[in-house]
Backbone:
């Protein structure tokens, strides 16, 4: 028996014994015993239903990935599964059990070509960027499935397409010099923060920031128009490439930030085939080295409290029958910023 299987068996055995001990401790009080048994049953059934819905979500995302794979192979575009998607492929040949999204990266050249091929996707899919949808603000792209709904809080006040999706991140060449790398990441993050604030996303923007910085930030944010901010963000990506010697690449919009999002392009290269959920998809050429760089011991399971996902409410995940008008805003937000511990004022 493998180490993970032994750990799971121990966990199941311990949980079962604990539940039994709790129930039998109240043999003289039938009402309490009955309530405990009912609560255990309800909790188990709820968990089972949640697992079924998560699995259905994963299968829908796999369908989206295979549509991307089809278009990329047809047009000889490079793409690679990354992050938790790649870890799951290496560990078990499929999704991490609690994962509810798929992430891929593409070299900038291939990413830009993909955006020009938006009509190549079947009518069941929508390639979402700020160029294909005016209200969309993010730097990367999402491939969404039409007729579905995945209601993330940060988009619920907008009218953008909210279908079940996968993320597609561009990889840009970056300088070998640490100071230039930091400058590129920090300037990109700052511009992106202005954009997120103006779009009133639910993302926290002021963690550990001083009051003078916050005041200055808000003043600049009010002055700079969105088109200019979009242009500055694109300019930073172009400068990042111009200052490089085309040895290292970085995902400026990646969630892990500097320096984990930087690696030699030779680790990515033309990529290699890897099995994922019984399908053949593309991964970085030296994916083990890349995963070690970003995650350390990626084969080790994280603590239970770190096994998180998008935490979208079940009622906000719909698999069919959704129409365009269903993507209309659900509420409005008064302010364009959010402090830690203080939520937005919401107008229903």
Residues:
């Amino acid at each position: 028996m493998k180490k993970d299987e032994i750990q799971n068996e121990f966990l199941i055995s311990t949980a079962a014994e604990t539940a039994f001990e709790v129930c039998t401790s109240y043999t003289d009080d039938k009402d309490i015993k009955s309530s405990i048994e009912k609560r255990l049953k309800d909790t188990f059934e709820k968990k089972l239903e949640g697992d079924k819905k998560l699995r259905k979500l994963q299968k829908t995302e796999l369908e989206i990935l295979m549509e991307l794979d089809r278009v990329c192979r047809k047009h000889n575009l490079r793409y690679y599964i990354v992050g938790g998607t790649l870890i799951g492929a290496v560990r078990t040949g499929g999704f991490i059990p609690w994962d509810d999204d798929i992430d891929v990266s593409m070299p900038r050249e291939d990413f830009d070509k993909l955006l020009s091929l938006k009509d190549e996707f079947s009518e069941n899919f929508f390639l979402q960027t700020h160029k294909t949808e005016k209200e969309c603000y993010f730097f990367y792209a999402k491939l969404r499935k039409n007729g579905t709904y995945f209601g993330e809080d940060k988009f619920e006040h907008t009218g953008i397409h909210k279908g079940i999706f996968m993320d597609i991140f561009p990889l840009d060449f970056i300088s070998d010099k640490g100071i230039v790398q930091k400058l590129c990441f920090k300037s990109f993050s700052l511009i992106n923060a202005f954009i997120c604030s103006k779009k009133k996303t639910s993302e926290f923007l002021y963690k550990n920031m001083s009051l003078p910085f916050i005041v200055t930030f808000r003043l600049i944010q009010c002055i700079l128009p969105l088109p200019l901010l979009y242009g500055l963000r694109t300019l930073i990506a172009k400068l990042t490439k111009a200052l490089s010697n085309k040895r290292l690449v970085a995902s400026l919009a990646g969630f892990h930030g500097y320096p984990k999002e930087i690696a030699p392009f030779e680790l990515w290269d033309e990529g290699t085939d890897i099995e994922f959920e019984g399908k053949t998809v593309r991964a970085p050429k030296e994916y083990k080295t890349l995963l070690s760089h970003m995650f350390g011991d990626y084969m080790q399971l994280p603590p239970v409290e770190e096994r998180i996902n998008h935490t979208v409410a079940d009622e906000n995940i719909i698999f069919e029958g959704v129409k365009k008008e269903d993507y209309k805003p659900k509420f409005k937000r008064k302010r364009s910023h959010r402090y830690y511990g203080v939520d937005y004022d919401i107008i229903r």
Summary: The mean pLDDT is 87. The helical segments are 3-24, 30-74, 83-92, 108-115, 178-198, 211-223, 226-242, 287-295. Residues 12-347 form one domain.
